Every structure is written in C-alpha cells, then in structure tokens.
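Retry 2 of 3 after timeout on previous attempt. Resubmitting structure tokens to design endpoint.
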C-alpha cells in the first residue's frame, strides 16, 4: 500500500449505534466525505497508527475500514478506536490520524460471533501497542501534522493527498507523504 503512512483529519460524527461502546471499544467515526477521499490502494481492513483529538496528546489507535451492511453495502466507514481512556465523549471535535500499517482484513460481518469480534479487536490493540513502540513509528508521532490541528482549516467535505499543496479544494484533510 503505497499510500501509507496516510494522514487525515475530520470531525467526529455519530456512528451507526452498533454499540461499540457497550463492547468496551468505542470507535470515533469519520464523516462519509473523509472516507470517500481514501486512496484506492487503501483496502478495507484493520490498521494501526497515531491519533489525537483537537489539540490533545497523540495516542495509539486502531482503525477499522469497512462496509456497513445497514447502508446496503454502499457506505464504507472509517472507525477509530483511540487506545486511551477519555473522561468524556468528543463528538463534534477534530480527530487527526495517521494510518501507518495494516493488521488484517475485516472478518465477515454476518458470520461474526460477538465474542470472536471482541477477541479479534483485543488482539489488534495488542499488535498496535507492540508495533507502535518501534523507533520508526515514534517519529510519526512527533510529526508536525499533530502540532496545530486546529490551525489548519478543517471542514467535513474535502481532502488532499499532499499537505504541502494547500489549495482551496484540498486544504482540509491531508496526506503529507
Ligand atoms: P458511534 O456509533 O456514535 O460511533 P460508539 O459506541 O462507537 O458510538 O462510541 C464512539 C464515541 O465514543 C466517539 O465518537 C467518542 O466521542 C467517544 N469515545 C470515548 N472514548 C473513545 C476512545 N477511546 N476511542 C474512540 N472514541 C471514544
Ligand atoms: N467489524 C467486523 O465486522 N469485522 C471485523 O473484523 C472488525 N474488526 C474491527 C477491528 C477494530 C480494531 C475495530 C475498532 C473495529 C472492528 N470492527 C469489525 C467494527 C465493529 O464491528 C464495529 O466497531 C461495531 O460497531 C462493533 O459493534
Ligand atoms: Mg463508532
């Protein structure tokens, strides 16, 4: 996947209410427009990387990119579980993420037993925790992308593949690499 690492940011919106939080694994959802801007070589599946909410500290994260069956398979979702315990929800705030590596493909939704899903997600978190300790990944945590997320104009409708080319169309969500 040549587009990795992939940087993007957007507003945290309400998800599909599938009860991620009840599973103990809340996932912050990006709006459709952010999802639609994903490069074609970023396939569906589970990724690990870094994330921050507004101007807050950078945390480890795991992200699921997949198709939501409730939307007749026409709507792909991007859900980020930040590996950190937050005091409050952060709907409406800006989530900045860098996706660094691919963990696995998404397992079929229909055949999924809930316990198996939880176990799989716990393993993903464990793998992300380990991988993100590598020195080459620590560098991305320090990336300027995370320094002033709110100074960069962010809306919910556009994206870019180059942080350096801040055209009107592409100033919002970016990939600096
Ligand atoms: P929804 O279906 O609306 O996405 P979830 O059950 O997935 O609902 O909960 C997601 C929300 O929980 C996020 O939008 C965020 O406001 C909050 N939240 C609290 N802690 C976390 C966390 N560690 N990672 C992601 N979201 C979190
Ligand atoms: N959903 C799936 O249907 N299959 C998966 O393999 C799967 N893996 C996930 C891995 C991670 C790290 C996360 C955060 C979510 C994953 N999901 C997966 C999405 C999950 O179904 C979604 O968050 C639901 O809202 C949980 O009820
Ligand atoms: Mg969610």
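Retry 2 succeeded. Sequence:
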């Amino acid at each position: 996947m040549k587009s990795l690492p992939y940087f993007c940011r957007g507003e945290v919106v309400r998800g599909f209410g599938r009860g991620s939080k009840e599973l103990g694994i809340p996932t912050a959802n990006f709006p459709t427009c952010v999802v639609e801007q994903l490069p074609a070589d970023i396939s569906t599946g589970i990724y690990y990387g870094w994330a921050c909410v507004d101007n807050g500290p950078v945390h480890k994260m795991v992200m699921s990119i997949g198709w939501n069956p409730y939307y007749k398979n026409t709507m792909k979702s991007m859900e980020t579980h930040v590996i950190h315990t937050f005091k409050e929800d952060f709907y409406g705030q800006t989530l900045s993420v860098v996706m660094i590596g691919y963990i696995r493909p998404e397992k079929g939704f229909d055949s999924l037993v809930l316990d198996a899903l939880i176990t799989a997600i716990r393993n993903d978190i464990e793998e992300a925790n380990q991988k993100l300790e590598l020195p080459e990944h620590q560098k991305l945590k320090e990336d300027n992308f995370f320094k002033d997320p709110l100074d960069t104009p962010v809306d919910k409708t556009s994206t870019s593949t180059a942080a350096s080319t801040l055209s009107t169309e592409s100033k919002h969500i970016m990939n600096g690499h």
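Attempt log closed. The mean pLDDT is 83.
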